[in-house]
Specification:
Blueprint lengths: L1 H12 L20 H11 L2 E2 L5 E2 L12 E2 L2 E2 L5 E4 L9 E4 L8 E2 L6 H4 L2 E4 L10 E4 L13 E5 L18 H6 L9 H5 L7 E6 L6 E5 L8 E6 L6 E2 L2 E6 L2 E5 L9 E6 L1
Parallel strand pairs: 1-8, 2-5
Antiparallel strand pairs: 3-4, 5-6, 6-7, 8-9, 9-10, 11-17, 12-16, 13-14, 13-17, 15-16
C-alpha cells in the first residue's frame, strides 16, 4: 500500500496527474471517468432555436400556406413552426415568403442534425402563444423521416374566475369607456372611473348658524343634494341649496338647526 501511494506521488511531482483505468462510478460517492461524463453531457445536449412568430394548429399547404396561421397575419420573413403536418416529414421551422409562395425551411433547421433535440418558443397565436416545442426524432433525413414535435413547457393560460394565469390590466380609458371586459381593474382606475357614483355625507347644525358650506370635493357641479333628519323618522327636509363651486355646496335654513340635527348627502 505504501508503495502504491508513493507511485502516485511520484507521478504528480513529475507534473502529471492523469489516473487511467478508472472503472465506471456506481455509487453516489464514486469517481467518474471521461466516458461517463461525455455520455451524461450528450444526453443533455439541446439546441435552442430562435423563436418563431406562430405555429400551426393543423395541416398547412407548404406550397400555398395562406396569409395567417393560428390567428396571426404573417409577414414575409416571419419564422413559423409546422408541427401538425399530415405528412410528418414536412414538419419543421420555416420562413414565410407570402400567402401564395412556398414556405422554405429556415437555414438553422434545414438538415436533420440541426433539428435533433431542437427547442423553439412561439411568440404569438390564439392557441400557441407562449408555448415551447421540442423535436424528439433522432438520426433522420430531412424531408424523408418524420419530424416530431412535442410540447416542452406548458404555457401560462389566460386567467379567469376559476383559472390562475395571465391577465391584462385595463387602462383608465378602457375603464371609462366600459370596454374592460376580461381585463383587470385596479383600485386606482376604479376610483378614477368617469362613471363612478360619487357621494359625500356629513352632519350639520350647531344651534347658531343658518348657512353651512359643505366641502364635498367631488369636483363637479352636477350634483344632487339631499338634507334629512338625523333622527327617526329621518324625513327629507326641504331647504335652499346652492352650488358654490365644483367642490362646495351651500345649505340654507330659515332657523338655526340644533347640533347635528340634520344630515346632508351630496351625490355626484
Amino acid at each position: 500500500m505504501a508503495g502504491e501511494i508513493k507511485l502516485v506521488q511520484d507521478i504528480i511531482s513529475d507534473g502529471f496527474a492523469t489516473l487511467k483505468g478508472i472503472p465506471n462510478g456506481v455509487d453516489p460517492q464514486d469517481a467518474v471517468n471521461v466516458q461517463q461524463l461525455d455520455a451524461a453531457v450528450a444526453a443533455l445536449v439541446i439546441s435552442w432555436k430562435d423563436a418563431v412568430r406562430a405555429a400551426s394548429t393543423g395541416n398547412v399547404d407548404v406550397a400555398n400556406p395562406g396569409a395567417a396561421i393560428d390567428g396571426v397575419t404573417l409577414q414575409s420573413g416571419d419564422r413559423i413552426l409546422l408541427k401538425d403536418q399530415t405528412t410528418a416529414s414536412q414538419n419543421g421551422i420555416y420562413i414565410f415568403n407570402g400567402a401564395s409562395t412556398p414556405l422554405t425551411r429556415s437555414t438553422d433547421a434545414d438538415i436533420f442534425d440541426e433539428l435533433e433535440q431542437a427547442i423553439v418558443a412561439v411568440e404569438e397565436g390564439t392557441a400557441n402563444a407562449s408555448t415551447f416545442w421540442r423535436q424528439t426524432q433522432l438520426n433522420g433525413t430531412i424531408d424523408v423521416d418524420d419530424v416530431l414535435w412535442s410540447s416542452f413547457l406548458s404555457a401560462t393560460p389566460v386567467a379567469s374566475e376559476t383559472v390562475a394565469g395571465i391577465i391584462e390590466i385595463a387602462t383608465q380609458a378602457e375603464v371609462d369607456a366600459g370596454v374592460a371586459n376580461n381585463l383587470a381593474v385596479t383600485p386606482l382606475t376604479l376610483a378614477n372611473w368617469a362613471g363612478r357614483k360619487l357621494k359625500f355625507c356629513a352632519d350639520i347644525g350647531d344651534g347658531t348658524n343658518t348657512v353651512f358650506n359643505v366641502t364635498h370635493n367631488l369636483n363637479t357641479e352636477d350634483i344632487h343634494i339631499e338634507v334629512y333628519e338625523n333622527a327617526a323618522p329621518q324625513g327629507t327636509v326641504l331647504v335652499q341649496t346652492e352650488r358654490v363651486d365644483a367642490n362646495t355646496a351651500r345649505i340654507c335654513f330659515k332657523n338655526p338647526p340644533t347640533s347635528n340635527q340634520y344630515r346632508v348627502c351630496v351625490l355626484g
